[in-house]
Amino acid sequence: MRRVDRRIRVGLAALLLAGLAACSSSQPDAPTAFGGPFELTAPDGHTVGSASLKGKPYAIFFGYTRCPDVCPTTLARMARLRKQLGPDGGKFAIVFVSVDPEHDKPEDLGRYVALFGTPVIGLTGDKEHLAQAVKNFGVFYQRVPQPGGDYTIDHTASVYLMDRDGTFVSTIDHDESDQMALAKLKRLIG
Amino acid sequence: MKAFHHAIVASSLSLAIAAPLLARDYVSGAITVAHPWARKTAQGQPTGGGFMVITNKGKADDRLIGGTTPIAAEVQIHTVSMDGGIMRMRRLVDGLPIAAGASVELRPGSYHLMFIGLKAPLQAGTTVPVTLQFQRAGQVRVEFAVQSMTANPGMPAMDRDHAPR
């Protein structure tokens, strides 16, 4: 098993940040082909997707409920940013899509998203529906088998910001400052 | 993994002892464990994360090699790395080295403990007893303070949603 040296990790993070800075300065929020039609299942069994989300901007993130780390950190951060926006915080929806339908049933997602103290739409779907959503957003995920038959999931950690028409606007990345993320959200709902 | 929360839910609830929230430091020989905290989990969620700062004030390198807790089937040490925007989590099978004189922070997005096979949800405002196993220092018993989901990571004492009474 690979052990990650702290210095290498810090170095990689610095490189990544430098890369991101370079990208954002040359192409500010250049819209790409993220997004597109998708249909998933909400905790109450209803179908929720690109069509029903239209009319309000949304921030969409892919993960799984057994992820102890990046997923709750990201969702808690989105909840915090929404709070910081005050009354405007309600002007966008937060959507969490589980890429672990084998474990996360719609009702599991309902219980999970309720932990964040702010409305979060928890979605999942069967293989085909999930594959469509994942493909549209260019999300990478891969199950990593663990000893004993269990697995964890490597996955894209970016939050995708979509405008009220469902058009991709920008991402909020894991390493980005709250200040920058807040500016992007303000632009999204502005 | 779904089978975890079939049994023992009622009995293990009593294991999460209500206690003051301020996470404290634990010292055992050369090893100091500061601010151990964990995140609240949802009903049916079989895993939880644990975070802390481990300092080795000794002259010899040590290594966190595992742990046990009555609230979960297993305690594992994991690391998270970001690779081109993709989160990759891996188990540190050989443990986490704590060099002589060094501090290692276990925090969201980096090294962390995974409580696997939770017997009951972790409730904010309670503590979770964990016996950490070090190669050199042996066992160190600590209590992880459970924070709400929206608690500021790394600032366990600042949980406004569940202020100490």
UniProtKB/TrEMBL annotation, chain A:
Cu cation binds at C67, C71, H155. InterPro entries: SCO1/SenC (IPR003782), Thioredoxin-like_sf (IPR036249), Thioredoxin_domain (IPR013766). Keywords: Copper, Disulfide bond, Metal-binding, Signal. Belongs to the SCO1/2 family. GO terms for molecular function: metal ion binding. Residues 16-190 form the Thioredoxin domain. It comes from the Bacteria. It comes from Caenibius tardaugens NBRC 16725. Disulfide bonds join C67-C71. The keyword Cell inner membrane does not apply. Pfam families: SCO1-SenC. Residues 1-26 form the signal peptide. This is Copper chaperone SCO1/SenC family protein.
UniProtKB/TrEMBL annotation, chain B:
Residues 1-23 form the signal peptide. Transmembrane segments: none annotated. Keywords: Signal. The keyword Methyltransferase does not apply. It holds the Pfam family PCuAC. The keyword Signal applies. Gene3D superfamilies: PCu(A)C copper chaperone (2.60.40.1890). This is Copper chaperone PCu(A)C. It comes from Caenibius tardaugens NBRC 16725. The lineage of its organism: Bacteria, Pseudomonadati, Pseudomonadota, Alphaproteobacteria, Sphingomonadales.
